Amino acid sequence: MTGKGISAMPTPTSNKAPSFSCNGKTSELLEFFEHFEDLAAGCSLGDVDKCKLVVRYVDKITKRFWISLAGYKSHDYMVLKDQILASYPGAKEGIKYTRRDLERVVVSLDNEDISSETGLFSYYREFRPIAVWLVTNEKISARERDQYFWQGLPLSVRRSIDRRLQLKLDYSRDDPTDYEEVYEAGRFVLSHDALVKSMREVHGAHASASPNAAKAMRTRAVIDSDEEDEHDMRKNDNPRDIHTKMVTSKPTILTAAQCDEAEELARKMHTLDITEDAYAAFYTRLACLAPAAAQAWAAPIFRQQSTSRSLTALRAPRNHLAAHTTLLCYMCGGPHLMRDCSVALEYIRAGRSIRENGYVTFPDHTRVYRHPTAGNFKESIDERYGGPLPPAAQPSLAT
Fold it and tell me: Which pLDDT score, from 0 to 100, does residue 258 have?
C-alpha cells in the first residue's frame, strides 16, 4: 500500500479489509481491531479518521450501536475502542478455548490424513494454538497436553515415531514425550526425502553410525500395548521374541533406480509394525539393497510359538503363574495379569477408567500412565480423582 490517508484504505468489500458483524464471535473483536489498526497505521490515519472509518467495516446493526457511544462522538479512537470492548462480554480476553476444543481436534481428524509430513503439519497447526492457550491459562497440564497430541496420531505413525524416539538416551515410555519433540520426530519419519537424504549422508564422509544410535537400534522394540507388555513377560507358555542383529557393511553407490526402490520400501515400512511378516520382508530387501540405510530402522521381531506346552499347563489356572513367575499387575501391582484384576474391573464399574483398544484410559479417552512412584495405574487414577474409591466400593487385591 503506497498511498496515505483515507483513500488508501481498502474498501469494505475488499478481501483485504477487516470485518465484524452482530452475528460474529465476540472473541474475534480483538483480531478485528488489530487488523484495522495495522491498516490505519500504514495509511497514517489520525483519531478522527479512525473513528470515521472503523464503523465502515461492520454491519448496519453494529454500526448504529458503535456510533451511539461517547468515544465516537468525541472522535477519541482509544476511548471508542475501550467502550466497544467493554460492551461485549469476554471481548477483552480475546479467543478462549476449552478442553473440549482440544479433544475435538484430536478425534476429528481422519487418521489417514496424518500419513504424510503435510498431514502431520495440518494436525499440529490446529492442535498447537489451543494447547498453548490451555496450558498458559492452567486449564490443562503440560503432561495432559503431550498425552492429547500423542493420542491424536494414528497407531502406525506412533510406532514409527516411537522407534525414532528410542534413539534418545533418556527416553522413557512411562512419561509422555514433549509434543514438540514428537512433532519433530514425526516430520523425520514421514518425510519423503528423509531416507534418500540419510543414505547420501551415510555414503559420504560420515558413513559410520554413532555408537549410541547403533546401541539403541539393537535394543528390542516394545509393542505399545498394556496387555501385550504383560504377555511379553511370560517366558514359558507364550510366544517368544527372537531378535535380529544389525550388520554393518561397507557403503555402496546406489543408482537412481535403486534409490527410488529404497524410498518406496521406506514408505511401506512406515505403515507396518516390526512384528509383521511384511515389515520383515521389506527390511530384508532394504538391507540387501542398501545395508547402511537399513541401520536407520528397527530390526524386525519374529514370533515363534513354543512347542513345550503340556495338557496340564494348558488347563492350569491363570493365577498359577504367580507361583512360578514375578508377574505384577499393571493396574494394582498384585501377582496376576491385569485381565484377571478385580481392581481394574471395579474401577471400570465406578466410571473412573475404561478399556479401549487394549489400553487403560480415563473416561475422556486420554491414556492412563503408570504412577512414577507406585508403578501402577491405580495410583495415577486415584491421583486424578483426589483419592481412592470409597471403602464400600474398594475391592480386595486378587492374588
Answer: 73
